[in-house]
Specification:
globular; 107 residues
């Protein structure tokens, strides 16, 4: 249970918070952002005290998926730095396929 919740709840919160920290370093620039920025940073608006407690209490379960995320970001970074368009496309395609499966009705 802890590993599942860490992957589907706690990790997305960390990713949203990181997106807000990086994308909104100059808050006024956020007004140029569209729905993607708003959607991906929405959960970063949660209560910091509550989320700090949740993350610390579940730190053992969250470290593995967080490390996987860091490795995944390193993969896309390397592909971008090397100009590997097909690798970038495949990386994005995998994300789209997983998102599509998540959104499809359970049968």
């Amino acid at each position: 249970h802890d590993a599942l919740v860490a992957r589907i709840s706690h990790l997305p919160h960390i990713i949203s918070a990181s997106g807000a920290r990086v994308s909104l370093q100059v808050p006024a620039e956020g007004r140029f952002g569209g729905g993607g920025l708003r959607d991906t940073t929405r959960v970063a608006g949660g209560n910091p005290e509550m989320w700090a407690e949740i993350l610390i209490e579940n730190r053992t379960a969250i470290t593995a998926p967080l490390r996987e995320t860091i490795e995944d970001l390193r993969e896309i970074l390397a592909s971008l730095e090397n100009g590997e368009q097909e690798s970038v496309r495949q990386w994005l395609m995998t994300a789209k396929q997983r998102r599509d499966l998540y959104q499809s009705p359970i049968t």
